[in-house]
Amino acid sequence: MEKFKVGILGATGMVGQRFAALLADHPWFEIKVLAASPRSAGSRYGDAVRDRWKLELPMPEKLGDFILKDVSRVSELAPELDLVFSAVDMKKEEIRRIEEDYARAEVPVISNNSAHRWTEDVPMVVPELNPEHYRIIEAQRRRLGTERGFIAVKPNCSIQSYTPAIFAWREFEPYELVVTTYQAISGAGKTFESWPEMRGNIIPYIGGEEEKSELEPLRIFGRIEGGKIVPAESPKISSQCIRVPILNGHTAAVFVNFRKKATKEELIEKLQSYRGLPQEYALPSAPKQFIRYLAEEDRPQVKKDVDFEGGMGISIGRLREDRLYDWKFVGLSHNTLRGAAGGGVESAEMLVKLGYIQKR
Description:
Blueprint: E1 4-9, H1 14-23, E2 29-36, H2 45-49, E3 69-70, H3 74-77, E4 83-86, H4 92-104, E5 109-111, H5 137-144, E6 151-153, H6 163-168, E7 174-183, H7 209-220, E8 223-225, E9 228-230, E10 236-243, E11 250-258, H8 264-273, H9 277-281, E12 291-294, H10 302-305, E13 314-321, E14 327-333, H11 337-353
Parallel strand pairs: 1-2, 1-4, 2-3, 4-5, 5-6, 7-10, 12-13
Antiparallel strand pairs: 7-11, 8-9, 11-14, 13-14
Helix pairs in contact: 1-11
């Protein structure tokens, strides 16, 4: 098949690099444009990232000679592209503006940024959980005055280590959660080389993360009503977010109360059997098994489990009854794959499959 022509906005940062690595040999998408800030524009991509390539994988050689474009030159770049992936590092108001500029130029935008997560007609989707929210794109296009263009975002990386489990247990009506996340330094776009003070250290604060952890799951559980996405009122979530000396992998320790009683066997079965549309459609980036349960007492572990299903699967373990809450468990997800660029690529695949993204 003729591939979709894609661009990466913010291609030199950590998430942009991850998009580049995932898309370099993608079966559906072909990179045509790598864009960055005006100060990087005009440079070879290989030169721009040589001393700051942050991934464990090498930079794709085929991208080394790409000349970086100025991300702000929307009118020049848009005609070349069927869609863009956004990982720009700017102030929120600047991100909102530039993503809307691309959308108004009839280029679908798949964003890793948080700037539009609470724009009422922008879908925030984990494709396995709430793909029906893509239907809000029709209302968004009416607002923007576009035929092709729109913005779709993925949620915060940390919530994906526990929200899939809660979603799989919806029939038992979870209504109250206490969550502590232990978040890797790559979530801040850092490595140990660029953030040596994190070695052997824990920082009990990550700006804005607790609000995201408490509120974004409610938007995923929400509904479309009157041309906007209305967040659910339940479950109520209380969160703490801690930065830990791990490169990749966000872990969550979760306590949960249900309105309906469930056995441990029932809860595990719901996790193991859960499948979403990406699995049904066998999308290129979709894990064959979205959620797995690990019975060992000392799992999941970052070293052993973060790369489950190529970093796109969720690992759950240590499910047990609690003295104050009904149940407690530990979840693990790869923050730059499932939680960031990989989730964005899977979202684009789903939007292609559902007909929201088409070639020019």
